[in-house]
Design brief:
This protein is α+β, with helices and mostly antiparallel strands. Helix content is 41%, strand content 18%. The chain is built from 6 helices and 3 strands; from the N terminus they run H-E-E-E-H-H-H-H-H. The chain has a 3-stranded antiparallel β-sheet with strand order 1-2-3. A hairpin with a 4-residue loop joins strand 1 and strand 2. Helix 1 crosses helix 2 (59-72) and helix 5 (100-120) runs parallel beside helix 6. The longest helix has 21 residues, at 100-120.
Length: 152
């Protein structure tokens, strides 16, 4: 069902935790449906020098969060914005169809953290990003999120 890479990133997730001085933080998901991802980015001179995550959810959610942090590290902000859910899933050697929504959350978490960074640095948000309102990342990335640790 799951690839060896998915199982490895679930069993040995990379980059778990918080970045105290993160300059981009994004939280996506919905406690009612079960998966919440919070991504922290440290960006210096337009390069993502560190990325960490906290995820509440299934094994695929943990694995996609882990892989997403690996994929963004060392990338420019512009390169990271182009990382898609398909890229995350492919890097994990695939996901079962019922778990592809986890890769969507990983893509959205990257986008939300980058939007937060851009907003904090006086840059206009990327108007090309379509939002259908499914993940509430727009709501969370505008400074109205509740503390992740208080989620039930």
């Amino acid at each position: 069902m799951y690839s060896e890479k998915v199982m490895d990133h679930f069993s040995n997730p990379r980059n778990v935790g918080e970045i105290e001085d993160a300059n981009g933080v994004g939280q996506v998901g919905n406690a009612k449906c079960g998966d919440i991802m919070k991504m922290y980015l440290k960006i210096e001179d337009n390069i993502i020098v560190d990325a960490k995550f906290k995820t509440f959810g299934c094994g695929a959610a943990v694995a996609t969060s882990s892989m997403a942090t690996e994929l963004v590290k060392g990338k420019t902000v512009e390169e990271a914005m182009k990382i898609t859910n398909k890229a995350v899933a492919e890097a994990l050697d695939g996901l079962p169809p019922a778990k592809m929504h986890c890769s969507n959350l990983a893509e959205e978490a990257i986008a939300a953290a980058l939007e937060d960074y851009r907003r904090k640095n006086g840059q206009a948000p990327d108007e090309s990003v379509d939002c259908d309102g499914c993940c509430n990342s727009c709501y969370h990335s505008h400074g109205r999120e509740e503390d992740f640790d208080d989620e039930d």
